[in-house]
Amino acid sequence: HSQEPGTHYDAVTNRMPRTTLFFSVHDMVGALDECLRALKRASVSMTRIESRPSKSVDPGYDFFVDVDAHTKELVQRVIEEVKKVKVVRDVRFVGSLEQAEECAVVNEHAVPWFPRKVSDLDTFAEKVLEMGEELSSDHPGANDPVYRRRRYDIVQKAKEYRTGQALPRIEYTQEEKDTWRQVYTRLRAMYPKYACREFLHVFPLLEQNCSYGPDDIPQIEDISRFLKDCTGFTLRPVMGLLTPRDFLNSLAFRVFHSTQYIRHHSDPYYTPEPDCCHELLGHVPLFADPNFAELAQEIGLASLGASDEDIEKLSTIFWFTAEFGLCREGGEVRAFGAGLLSSFGELEYALTDKPEKRT
């Protein structure tokens, strides 16, 4: 069949054609942010982003961005918008990531770029798929300018953070603390009945060592130090939701990206995206458990240089274990997934006979 140039049709999965944009940028604060705004002006959505040190711009980075542009006219519009960004060099569309590598004169034997050292994770700082400072229309805080400004201020700290610096400390407002209190108090009362034994072992240690409690939101610097002593895991701030590849790659270095903003106060028991309640109550406790930490790192190591298909498989493994996993303890089913342990509704529902459970 015929198809538009500059797109790649995935015959195996029968998905829509994928259009990949390649461009190089000078290493400047806010450079990628300007490029992503250009995509927004062109009215296209980004579905994947990857980066690697540039072979043509020094200092700089080459970016490969998949967008939902499937006509010649839309492709041309995107090119023109990105070209308007002053720090951008060499903008072009290619059919697939492999072709993009040829255009960039990169001989990596078709292996996607991956971080070789922990400081390489700094390249993820501005690479978020959604949320962060910009909220979708159905987000409870979308029409609250005060909340939006607060989110913007917090994510700027994550954007500016680099490896080796002290983790940002957030002075949370009383309204934010009140939201945390409602979530913390309700979940804390449920944990003895629903959480796995490893989680129940670690949680009191977080209360003793990291100021976990109903009255204030713990700081990720304190938690990171505690985790490092327990299993070698550390935290670093993130603007929003990372790509699956970037998120998994970070686990290979025993690094977990944590948001620092909190859900909107109007609906404390709901969030459409990860926030500090999800990260600190759902994920953090098991990163202090040696066995779970080893599992997370093994998944991360397997993701380094993996194909898109393997990234999808590894993400699925992580999703049904670390996010929504259940385990048997004697004759009981208990939760260890962060998506369950940070949501009282999900936690209660998962331990009933209603959801489908697979082993």
Mean pLDDT: 86
Topology pattern, helix = H, strand = E: EHEEHEHHHHHEHEHHHEEHH
Number of strands: 8
Q: What spatial order of strands do you see in the largest sheet?
A: 2-3-1-4
Shape: globular
Main sheet record: 4 strands, antiparallel
Low-confidence stretches: 1-16, 96-109
Percent helix: 40-55%
Integer-rounded radius of gyration: 21 Å
Number of helices: 13
Beta-strand percentage range: 5-15%
**Structural class from helices and strands?**
alpha+beta
First-residue to last-residue Cα separation: 42 Å
Provide an overview of this structure.
42% of the residues lie in helices and 13% in strands. The chain has 359 residues and is an alpha+beta fold. Helix 8 packs across helix 10 and helix 10 runs antiparallel to helix 11. The longest helix has 21 residues. The two termini are 42 Å apart. The N terminus is likely disordered.
Q: Strands, helices and their partners?
A:
Blueprint: E1 19-26, H1 31-41, E2 46-53, E3 60-67, H2 72-83, E4 88-94, H3 97-103, H4 145-160, H5 174-194, H6 197-209, H7 220-230, E5 234-237, H8 244-251, E6 255-258, H9 276-287, H10 290-303, H11 308-323, E7 326-329, E8 332-335, H12 338-341, H13 344-350
Helix pairs in contact: 8-10, 10-11
Descriptive tags:
single chain, 359 residues, alpha+beta, 4-stranded antiparallel sheet, two-stranded parallel ribbon, globular, disordered N terminus
Write a compact overview of the structure shown:
With 359 residues, the protein is an alpha+beta fold. It has 13 helices and 8 strands.
